[in-house]
Amino acid sequence: MTDHGFTTTFTVDRTPMEAFDAVIDARGWWSEEIDGPTDQPGAEFTYHYEDVHRCRIQVTEAVPGRKVSWLVVDNYFDFTEDKTEWIGTTISFDISDEDGKTEVRLTHQGLVPAYECFEVCSTAWDFYAGSLRSLITTGEGQPNGRGRPRLPLEEAAAGQGR
Predict the structure, then answer these.
(1) Closest CA to 55 of 23, 22, 84
(2) What pTM did the predictor assign?
(3) Domains of the chain and CATH, by start
(4) CB-based contacts of 103: which residues, under 8 Å, 6+ apart?
(5) Residue 51: its pLDDT value, please?
(6) Average of pLDDT values for 10-23?
(7) Residues 63-102 pLDDT 10s
(8) Which one is predicted more confidently, 145 or 64?
(9) DSSP secondary structure letter of residue 55
(10) Vertex 107, ends 106 and 108: CA angle to 5°?
(11) What is the C-alpha separation between 162 and 149, in angstroms, rounded?
(12) Of 28, 57, 5, 60, whose CA–CA distance to 134 is shortest?
């Protein structure tokens, strides 16, 4: 984590292109409830989890094998006073070759400790980074979605809003 956002990094024994392909498959690691393209600069997609969290995200960068960036255009949490947290923040995935392995750095620029959602969101990003790592290495992530039981972090977020 930095003063300007949340960051987590992991390394895998896969190619940068395999990591990139997994990142842009956000339905495979983040949520099955994503509508729209997650890999085309200028395109927008929506994410939603029950009535707990919704957001609209614009793809700002997709450089195969190197980087993916998303800008949060609109956001809503049911568990925060400020329903606009995340708006204007950037979620990026920097992918690099490190001595024959691939490093993936997920940064949510603007997700800062002053945000009411910070604890839940940073815990969630840690979980979803693990889900992304799993998708890259095994072909199976752990996205939230239709018909799946709630993850503990989702349960915690849902409980805060009620």
Answers:
(1) 84
(2) 0.89
(3) 5-160 (3.30.530.20)
(4) 9, 10, 11, 94, 95, 96, 97
(5) 84
(6) 98
(7) 999 999 999 999 999 889 998 899 999 999 999 999 999 9
(8) 64
(9) E
(10) 125
(11) 18
(12) 28
